[in-house]
Known about the structure:
Layout: E1 31-34, E2 37-40, E3 45-49, E4 54-57, E5 75-76, E6 87-94, E7 98-106, E8 111-120, E9 123-130, E10 137-147, E11 155-163
Amino acid sequence: STFPDWFVIEGADSISVDLGEFFWKVPKTPTTFCKVRISDAVQKSVIDVTDSIFVIDTTRLTSINNHVQIPQEYNLYQNYPNPFNPTTTIKFDLPFTSIVKLNVYNILGQEIATLVESNLNAGYYNYKWDASKFASGVYIIRIDASPIEKSNKGFISAKKVMLLK
């Protein structure tokens, strides 16, 4: 059988991998054959492609959940683990599609890394920071999110993180 073009999963970069849950949009045909391609939404590079073919039989579905949860407010959470060596996870929520900048600063206020500089859909996000090339110390993670829809308020927040080697 032939395979359709790749299905784009809108906002897939916002799905929490900690939960082990993944969601796909599939066409409303009785049976769909597909492979899964995992891409980095920020870097625009392919991370992995499955060798296996998945068959999605929509005639056997017992339920469909059309409810997509969107955060009610902006939030930047404390990184985990903290202290960390050398990687940590930074979580944040976006209630609106926003222009997002997620930067790391040293204790002198100098920007040392940009983790995100992109338009992101509303959703829940996790980003890993690999600080292996940086010295032990206290750093500041800062998010600046400006909603695309100017009638909504933006968000700026910062958290202290500690790298221990």
